[in-house]
Amino acid sequence: MEIRFIPHALERLEERGIPRELVEEVLLNPEGVSEGYFGRKVAQKRLNGKLIRVIYEETSDGMVVVITAYITSKVRKYGGGEK
């Protein structure tokens, strides 16, 4: 799987202190993937009682383009199971 980060995603990862390797791990081994807005997908995984969510698009040739990622404590809201 080829993963590309748009500039916006790289800026947000830096602001939020999220390593690229963590985003790649979530994309390669998500606990769940759901449909997002505008045909995008959301991969997520629990992490130390929180949830990391990666919003991405898939291109026709199979490339994954990361739009943004964030960590939230709202595990139940996003279907990540019990806290």
Topology:
Layout: E1 3-5, H1 7-16, H2 20-28, E2 32-35, E3 41-47, E4 50-58, E5 64-72
Parallel strand pairs: 1-5
Antiparallel strand pairs: 2-3, 3-4, 4-5
Task: Please report the distance between the alpha carbons of the first and last residues.
Answer: 31 Å
CATH architecture: 2-Layer Sandwich
Question: What is the fold-level CATH name, i.e. the topology?
Answer: YaeB-like fold
SS class: alpha+beta
Low-confidence stretches: none
**What can be said about the biggest beta sheet?**
5 strands, mixed
Counted beta strands: 5
Broad shape:
globular
Word description of this protein:
There is one protein chain. The protein has 83 residues and is an alpha+beta fold. It has one domain: YaeB-like fold (2-Layer Sandwich). It is built from 2 helices and 5 strands. A hairpin with a 5-residue loop joins strand 4 and strand 5. The longest helix is centred in the N-terminal third of the chain and has 10 residues, at 7-16. The N and C termini lie far apart (31 Å). The model has no long low-confidence stretch (mean pLDDT 92).
Write a compact overview of the structure shown.
The chain has helices spanning 7-16, 20-28; strands at residues 3-5, 32-35, 41-47, 50-58, 64-72. Helix content is 23%, strand content 39%.
What are its keywords?
DUF4258, DUF4258 domain-containing protein, 5-stranded mixed β-sheet, YaeB-like fold, alpha+beta, 83 residues
